[in-house]
Design a protein that fits this description.
four-stranded parallel beta sheet; Rossmann fold; 147 residues; 4 helices; alpha/beta; single chain
């Protein structure tokens, strides 16, 4: 099974979703993330994920065009994570589209602790949605399960 997580910048929500899904599904599911306007991976996303033992330090923001054609051809699900901005769309006939509207945790200013708190909330929401999605679709959870 192939799952693609998408948001605009591929810097926070979709990156966290990719890291979480890889940890939760293990090797049972192929997971990637991409954005319509890739930026840099947000350091608060990296920090929030590091707190739960998921390392995003080697991740980089990428566009849909950078994904392997073999992955795209066999895509089963495209999960978009945008809320207030226009979500990227892609043309694929096979993949089912799922939308999880989550506010961009990087969309507001504040102290480092306030910003990190928003990223933690987003991370936990994504983890919960991935676990629910797995149960709903009958996907085996072979790795770490969020508390």
């Amino acid at each position: 099974m192939n799952i693609l997580f998408m948001c605009v910048a591929n810097s926070a929500r979709s990156q966290m979703a990719e890291g979480l899904a890889k940890k939760i599904f293990g090797t049972a599911v192929n997971v990637e993330s991409a954005g319509s306007q890739p930026k840099n991976v947000n350091p608060f996303a990296t920090a929030a994920m590091k707190e739960i033992g998921i390392d995003l330090s080697n991740h980089y923001s990428k566009s849909y065009d950078e994904l392997k054609p073999s992955f795209i051809v066999q895509l089963d699900y495209v999960i978009t994570l945008c809320a207030e901005e226009v979500c990227p769309s892609m043309v694929t006939q096979k993949a089912q589209k799922v939308h999880w509207p989550l506010p961009d945790p990087a969309g507001k200013q504040g102290s480092d602790e306030e910003q990190l708190s928003r990223f933690r909330e987003t991370r936990d929401s994504i983890a919960s949605r991935i676990s629910d999605f797995a149960r709903e679709k009958g996907i085996a959870i072979t790795g770490w399960v969020p508390q």
